[in-house]
Design brief:
Strand content of chain B: 25-35%
Distance between the termini of chain A: 29 Å
Helix content of chain B: 25-40%
Strand order of the largest sheet of chain B: 6-7-8-3-9-10
Largest sheet of chain A: none
Order of helices and strands of chain B: EEEHEEHEHHHEHEHEEHEHEEHEH
Number of strands of chain B: 14
Distance between the termini of chain B: 38 Å
Structural class of chain A: mainly alpha
Largest interface: A-B, 22 and 30 residues
Largest sheet of chain B: 6 strands, mixed
Strand content of chain A: under 5%
Oligomer: heterodimer
Order of helices and strands of chain A: HHHHHHHHHHHHHHH
Chain lengths: 244, 312
């Protein structure tokens, strides 16, 4: 456990040692604000909730989270530090988890920094803070799922640009798994059971149900399992590809 | 202690390391020599626990590098090729990180870190990001992280590559100072280094061990072993005198610096006879030297000879 903590601390502080962290946080906050107020019509709706804020998170994450995830393993491979890291007395699982948790915590920090909008909505009216809390939780879990995909894709290549683009594509598929765009493709030939299973994988469906304020255990488990699966895949890929 | 048994690594069709077996006791420094792509780095990566062997096994201090990986990694200090490190970290931050992952705690950690800072003269660059350091400093930071936990086994992949002559000398002195109670493997293609630090040398090419001997034994395989070379103004007379010495097998004159070398017949000593004869004949020499053997020539003969055999 302590090795995870040490790797976690190193990774997290390395985000803030470079401009990456500040650029990411500023862009995230700017875009989140812009979407909420201009596209989401936060004021015009006249309702004291954060629906216009949270409903854009999946689309924001689609491009911003892969930008965090792309460097996770590509950079280690490219600079050769992967050799250093994996010859320290840590297990593969500790390395994968430590790096992932740091990146997730970093996105969590960016998410927490959106708190002024929560203050705003509480100042303007009396929103259901339970729903807002649930939405934050759902948003954070969804970011984790995106990031776990990014971790795995980043382990496949030492090229960060390729890692970024592939992660966006895979995340896009998972985001829209429950929608006609993806389902029609499978519906034409796959058995109904498979189509139902695929529609059940949609990030958007699970996120929407959490952000309604209903914290269903199944939605939580869904995101946690997704994260665990992609992290496991990361470890397998790193092990297979570390020789190249 | 390091022991490998038939250590092998294949990448598809390519066999990078092919059945390497050796045993190395504490207090010995093993030099890994070989052309580029010979399998030196791959062998070291397997011993350090980064790559899993395709077949065969390796143990460090009795811990198998696959089955008992964590215990093995704890006793090994490893400098990967090119001395990679996290560029955005400061020297101190990086050493702190490695020491912490290595499980060093409290006063002991502080003392160990101070010790490696002192040994590698890193005092001036402690607060600088590593990516801003010169190549020599980066290499020294890499060495520092490899020895911060005072490991019983040290694996250094080209530790002096990219260093200037003074820094090379310092790193060699450091290796020699640590050699007493540690088991050390060093890879290099600088042949003079073998003499400076190694008590044993293994030459590998195409994944196989071609020679395993002390540096002196390797040199004894050289054509130049026990040869006598001299420089003189009167080359023709000197050559005539040398040819009269009974045990001289051949005489060569270097076309560039006119240096004359006399090669002995196998197992014979010719230095005394040549020295006496030159004196009695009154031939002035500006230099007279007994050669111990040329490592580069031995290296070429062993590695290229093998390559030809394999091709044939």
């Amino acid at each position: 456990m302590s090795a995870i903590t040490t790797i976690f601390k190193r990774e997290l502080s390395s985000y803030f040692a470079t401009p990456v962290a500040y650029v990411f946080i500023v862009i995230f906050l700017l875009l989140a604000g812009t979407f909420t107020f201009y596209l989401g019509n936060f004021y015009e709706r006249g309702q004291a909730d954060l629906l216009p804020f949270f409903s854009f998170h999946p689309w924001l994450y689609l491009f911003l989270v892969p930008a965090v995830g792309m460097r996770l393993w590509s950079e280690e491979r490219k600079s050769g530090t992967i050799e250093l890291l994996l010859t320290l007395p840590v297990t593969m699982w500790q390395a994968v988890a430590g790096k992932f948790l740091a990146a997730w915590a970093f996105i969590g920090i960016a998410l927490v920094l959106t708190f002024p909008i929560w203050i705003t909505v509480n100042y303007l009216g009396s929103p259901d803070n339970g729903v807002i809390f649930a939405s934050y939780l759902g948003s954070f879990l969804m970011a984790g799922a995106f990031l776990a995909i990014g971790s795995c894709v980043s382990a496949c290549t030492r090229n960060q640009v390729i890692a970024f683009i592939l992660t966006v594509v895979v995340c896009f598929l998972f985001l829209l798994a429950g929608f006609p765009l993806v389902l029609n493709f499978f519906g034409a030939w796959a058995p109904q059971g498979l189509v139902d299973a695929i529609s059940g994988l949609s990030f958007l469906t699970h996120f929407t149900s959490i952000s309604k304020g209903v914290i269903d255990l199944r939605d939580l488990i869904y995101f946690l399992l997704t994260i665990a699966f992609w992290l496991y895949a990361s470890a397998v890929v790193i092990d297979l590809k570390k020789a190249d | 202690m390091i022991e490998t048994r038939q250590l092998t690594k294949r990448y598809g069709e390519l066999t990078a390391v092919d059945g390497i077996s050796f045993k190395l006791e504490p207090g010995r420094v093993l030099g890994f020599l070989g052309p580029n792509g010979a399998g030196k780095s791959t062998t070291m990566k397997m011993i350090a626990g980064f790559l899993a062997p395709t077949s065969g096994s390796a143990t460090v201090c009795g811990h198998d590098v696959v089955d008992d990986a964590l215990a093995a990694k704890r006793v090994v200090g490893y400098l990967p090729e090119g001395a990679p490190s996290y560029g955005e970290m400061t020297t101190r931050g990086f050493l702190d990180f490695v020491a912490e992952v290595r499980g060093l705690k409290g006063a002991h950690r502080t003392q160990r870190i101070d010790d490696v800072i002192e040994r590698l003269h890193l005092n001036g660059v402690l607060e600088q990001p590593i990516e801003t350091l010169s190549k020599g400093f980066k290499r020294r930071v890499g060495l520092a992280q490899a020895i911060v936990h005072d490991p019983a086994v040290l694996i250094l992949d080209e530790p002096t590559d990219g260093l200037d002559p003074n820094q090379k000398h310092e790193v060699r002195a450091l290796i020699n100072a640590m050699a007493k109670d540690k088991t050390i493997v060093v890879s290099t293609h600088i042949l003079e280094e073998v003499h400076a630090v190694c008590s044993r040398a293994i030459i590998i090419a195409q994944g196989k061990i071609l020679a395993d001997a002390t540096p002196a034994e390797l040199e004894a395989r050289s054509r130049y072993h026990q040869a006598v070379s001299l420089t003189t103004a009167n080359a023709a007379a000197a050559k005539e005198v040398l040819s009269r010495v009974a045990d001289v097998a051949a005489i060569e004159i270097d076309p560039q610096d006119r240096r004359i070398t006399a090669f002995p017949k196998p197992g014979k000593q010719i230095f005394g006879a040549i020295s006496d004869l030159l004196k009695t004949q009154g031939i002035q020499v500006s230099e007279l030297q007994l050669e111990s053997g040329r490592m580069d020539e031995v290296f070429r003969t062993i590695t290229q000879g093998e390559a030809k055999q394999v091709q044939a």
